[in-house]
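Hallway conversation turned thread

IA: we were arguing at lunch whether anyone had actually written out XRE family transcriptional regulator end to end. Turns out nobody had. So, for the record, here is the sequence (65 residues) and right after it the structure tokens. Reply here if something looks off.
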Amino acid sequence: MPYKCKLKVILADKDIKHGEFANNIGIDKSTFSSIVNNKSLPSFETLYDIVEELRRIDPDIRMYG
């Protein structure tokens, strides 16, 4: 099953700009754009930072399904 990033939908739902989110997790906007647009996969460290930031924003967020 191919990887499909849902960050674009999640961030739009929370009204969060991609650049702001990238800044919050400490990565370049272009790197985050590549992840969001399914052009690259995040490193484990970046993925961990994404999950932690999403949980900080919304502790009840579902990370699956």
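OS: looked through it. The domain at 7-57 is CATH 1.10.260.40 (434 Repressor (Amino-terminal Domain)).
IA: good, adding that to the notes. Helices lie at 7-13, 18-25, 29-36, 44-57.
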